User: What shape does this take?
Amino acid sequence: MQDTQTHKKPSRIQQRNRTAILEAALDVFSQHGYRGATLDQIAVQAGLSKPNLLYYFDGKEDIHVTLLSQLMETWLDPLVTMDAQGNPVDEILAYVQRKLDMARDLPRESRLFAGEILQGAPRLRSELEGHLKPLFDEKCAVIQAWVDAGQLPQIDPRHLVFTIWASTQHYADFALQVSILTDDAPDTFAVASDHLDRMFRSMLTLP
Amino acid sequence: MQDTQTHKKPSRIQQRNRTAILEAALDVFSQHGYRGATLDQIAVQAGLSKPNLLYYFDGKEDIHVTLLSQLMETWLDPLVTMDAQGNPVDEILAYVQRKLDMARDLPRESRLFAGEILQGAPRLRSELEGHLKPLFDEKCAVIQAWVDAGQLPQIDPRHLVFTIWASTQHYADFALQVSILTDDAPDTFAVASDHLDRMFRSMLTLP
DNA sequence: GCTAAATTTTACCATTTGGTAAAGCCACGA
DNA sequence: TCGTGGCTTTACCAAATGGTAAAATTTAGC
Assistant: This one.
């Protein structure tokens, strides 16, 4: 018996292979969804045999949940950074930019997450309720406080955040459509950055 | 041999069963994606046996493409309606509302579409390039003309449309997340409607 | 009511898929 | 150098899946 689950020190080779597997799984799961992904695909992509995969993980589900819980941390980080002490408009606009950067730099992660939610998130619900919800509530309260203090116009903080998520992640989740419709313009993210900054600035600026 | 492909008159029973199959397929494909969906699931949902399915369609792929090409028409309709002769702000805001209505009334269709794009749209590319792209270009030109005429502030029409799509479809595609984060508020769409109207109005109103 | 065509069922099949057992390999400390 | 324990491969398997052949049944037109 080896030691992938219990809390001992993982060997160098274990570290390497588990990382390779999760890398490959990110590729495959984000492209085909949970049910559409196959262990063989993941194994090939990771450069391992299928039984070798299952030496490191207890099964398909195990790989998937490991991936998702690792992702959640990264995913929520830009929101965590939003500071209640800062200038409201600056803080929110900076958050928009961080989210857009993530859509550009981590599109597979964005798509994995999107696909999960899309399919009813049977293996993500608890993460959403346990980690996302409290953070979301906290940051909405911060924004609401800004509104109440007259530092922002009357807006619904929850729907503002939804709109930020939607409009930034769109560039990762719908990248194919975007690239078709913009004729593969190489400056898409630069233009998007400017567009989103203008848009959120105009809606957050007091009249 | 029967007559599902050739262009004769379909019998009443054929009409009914093909409709039932596509209904069921919409459910299953939108929930699990193409590869994750199974013919058995679709058959059960449609109240037919699997071989009976395959009497009406040539295979899984056939069901899928039929569904997608039927959907595309419905999907583009709100954009078609946007009128170059109308008032720019009113036209765009009305388009936003039509898209939001669609997210509320046709969430499965939205998710099917989203899942397709997410997975690289191998069976949708031609539809996107053939139908969506020309319409998109046409309507972007209309918006650009409004901008050039000084009836709208300087905005990038393409990214405006992306933002409209993203922010409205979000309520269908990420419905689960939205419902968790809003504690299942029953008035989500009403609040969203108000929020989006305000947002786009503020960004489209000349300073 | 009869027949021919349309529809549905039954009984399959080949392939793919997630997963396992057990043998083999390999690195490293005693 | 020789075990011993961690790692990898080979050879499988049962279930699920997309699909088919052909018999059985229903429907529609006369």
Residues 2-3, 11, 13-14, 17, 48-49, 51-52, 55 of chain B lie near DNA strand C (CB under 10 Å from a C1'). The CA atoms of residues 93 and 197 of chain B lie 6 Å apart. Chain B has ten helices and no strands.
